[in-house]
Design goal:
Layout (H helix, E strand, L loop, with lengths): L2 H7 L9 E7 L2 E15 L2 E11 L2 E6 L4 E3 L9 H6 L4 H11 L5 H32 L9 H7 L11 E13 L5 E13 L3 E13 L8 E5 L11 E2 L15 E2 L11 H9 L6 H10 L2 H7 L3 H9 L4 H10 L2 H10 L3 H9 L5 H9 L5 H9 L4 H10 L5 H16 L7 H4 L4 H23 L2 H4 L1 H8 L1 E3 L2 E4 L4 H11 L8 H6 L4 E7 L8 E5 L4 E5 L8 H28 L1
Parallel strand pairs: 6-11
Antiparallel strand pairs: 1-2, 2-3, 3-4, 4-5, 6-7, 7-8, 8-9, 9-10, 12-13, 13-14, 14-15, 15-16
Helix pairs in contact: 3-4, 6-7, 6-8, 9-10, 10-12, 14-16, 16-18
Length: 574
């Protein structure tokens, strides 16, 4: 729309009332809305009066006081306040309804009309964008002959003897050269569902990444819609999310039959062909070009070591330093168990490690395993440590943590942990339990000393709180340690979070509810101030049989209040 034509339609003097009129232009009809009282803030000053124009495929706002055009929708010019003040005349309503085709008030009709304009523009942009993406994505060549059948062979072909149903996913990585001279990396997902009666599978292309080099980087990439199938026409988009793939696979199977067509260095091709682990082969190709030694490792059976060394480019050089320090015999040990960088680090720290010890380490799982094993094995023969754990049926990460605690406690007692009688003791679990018990006794003694009022008040508290009724016992703790033990057994916070200190200050009291037939088994833990039940919980902060227990507690606290009143009366009388 030409601005000169729109300016010519504006009256020399704006009317005092809001007005809407249909005007004619060379491109068709347009709607002119005059808002004389509209205020627009610019450069920290108020600008009065604007004229808003709307036509079939656009809109503009003109601020008459400063002569400025703004591409602003009617909903964004703060017109609603002024519509309530002066509104529009009857002719304005008729013109807006005839122009927009919407039977509503002026403001709503214009807003809905302009929203439809915005939607059509957005739809047009998306269609153009989709067309460009489809054109670029179509640069990928046809799939190699027999590729889909090869993908099918990567999934289980039949069930095992005891299997009734198998389902899962495999990811395939394919590199190709395009007719335009660029290269494309393609990722496929093969879903499968196998039973005795059926063998179902579907191949979907997830990603196409185009690059100027054969492998290793993307200049532009597109994500496939997940309802398509490989080898058929499929829609693409340049962002993740929605119906597109949300996460690119990190571990894939490589289609290696066409590698010679890519013009890659010989050592890179040989390295890729030698690997059969699921991994990102684009990353591997870049690493193989930088480090020719990878070919020897891959062909030597060190598949996991190659994966661990290449996958993270930020730690690649640091890991290579560890690998280069390994001797031929150490690499042979790793190859026998297909060990990775974790086992290589242990071999670097403990060259004496045997193949059996390395295999045991592979079974350990846990994010902090490196630090724990490093701490445990410092100054010790790691073979002896692992053999001891195996003989005591302790080949797990939890047992390794327990053994670490045993060594720390032995060191704290002044013992020399490098002495074989300490670190190779077959009764280490027994001594660990003994050390823990001694430590808890010391801690309990200190806890009781700091909170001595609990023990001092025991007899008085028994007179007030202790009771036996309807097959239940209300017991008073003898010391602060009893409360700590109760919290540990019940797995709730009464042993900490200040409850012991509050009872020591006589602000509130902790009482144990037990069943009469099981007086030593915790049931409920109660906090009270002597006049009301503050809280009462069973194990793990649960409330088993709460209806019965609540009635019991209400009767008990009523009796407690009577006892406290009687004691108070006796005290005053004395």
């Amino acid at each position: 729309m030409k601005k000169k034509e729109l300016l010519a339609a504006i009256p020399k003097e704006l009317p005092k009332q809001n007005m809407a009129r249909v005007i004619k232009t060379s491109e068709g009809k347009a709607l002119m809305v005059i808002l004389p009282e509209n205020i627009f803030l610019i450069d920290y000053r108020d600008v009065h009066g604007c004229v808003h124009f709307t036509w079939k495929n656009g809109y503009l706002t003109y601020y008459t006081e400063i002569g400025m055009w703004v591409r602003r929708a009617f909903r964004n010019i703060d017109a609603n306040t002024y519509l309530e003040v002066s509104g529009f005349d009857e002719k304005s309503h008729e013109d807006v309804e005839s122009f927009t085709g919407i039977d509503a008030n002026v403001g709503y009709g214009i807003r809905k009309f302009e929203e439809s304009i915005d939607y059509k523009k957005w739809e047009h942009r998306m269609d153009n964008r989709q067309a460009r993406i489809n054109k670029w994505a179509a640069e990928a060549p046809a799939l190699p002959k027999g590729f889909l059948k090869w993908c099918e062979k990567q999934i289980p072909q039949k069930l095992g003897k005891r299997q009734r149903h198998v389902h899962g996913k495999e990811y395939i990585q394919l590199f190709q050269k395009c007719r335009t001279g660029c290269y494309v990396e393609r990722m496929f997902r093969v879903e499968y569902d196998i039973t005795r009666e059926k063998h179902w599978h579907r191949t979907t292309e997830l990603v196409r990444g185009f690059s100027r080099v054969p492998i290793g980087s993307w200049d532009r990439w597109y994500y496939g819609v997940i309802d398509g199938a490989g080898g058929k026409e499929q829609r693409w988009w340049d962002r993740k999310g929605g119906t597109q793939v949300n996460n690119c696979p990190q571990k894939m199977i490589l289609y290696s039959k066409n590698l010679n067509e890519l013009g890659l260095p010989t050592n890179v091709v040989e390295t890729l062909k030698a690997m059969h682990k699921r991994m990102d082969y684009g990353t591997l190709a870049v690493a193989a070009e930088e480090n020719p030694e990878l070919e020897k490792l891959a062909k030597g059976g060190l598949q996991q070591l190659v994966c661990d060394t290449c996958m993270n480019k930020y730690t690649r050089e640091q890991k290579w330093k560890i690998v280069r320090k390994l001797t031929k015999s150490q690499l042979q040990k790793l190859a026998e168990i297909d060990g990775g960088i974790y086992e290589a680090e242990m071999l670097e720290a403990h060259p004496e490690m045997t193949r059996e010890s390395l295999k045991m380490l592979q079974a350990f799982r846990g994010g902090d395993r490196r630090e724990i094993i490093k701490d445990v094995s410092e100054g010790l023969n790691i073979n002896h440590v692992l053999t001891l754990l195996k003989k005591t049926n302790s080949c797990s990460m939890d047992s390794m943590r327990e053994y670490q605690d045993y060594l720390h406690m032995a060191r704290a007692r002044g013992m020399t942990v490098t002495d074989e009688i300490v670190y190779r003791n077959k009764r280490w679990k027994y001594f660990h339990a003994q050390y823990v018990e001694e430590k808890e006794q010391k801690e309990d003694a200190e806890l009781n000393r700091k909170n001595s009022n609990i023990s001092t008040d025991y007899r008085v508290n028994c007179e007030v709180f202790q009771a036996c009724t309807d097959g239940y016992l209300f017991l008073v703790p003898r010391s602060a340690a009893d409360i700590r033990v109760e919290g540990n057994l019940q797995h709730h916070c009464v042993g900490r979070a200040g409850y012991i200190e509050k009872m020591n200050r006589r602000e509130s009291f902790i009482i144990f509810l037990r069943k009469a037939e099981e007086p030593k088994v915790p049931y409920y833990t109660i906090e009270t101030d002597g006049y009301r039940i503050i809280q009462a919980y069973g194990a793990y902060d649960r409330k088993p049989d709460w209806d019965t227990v609540n009635k019991l507690l209400q009767a008990w606290i009523k009796e407690v209040r009577k006892r406290k009143m009687q004691r108070e009366t006796q005290r005053i009388a004395i």
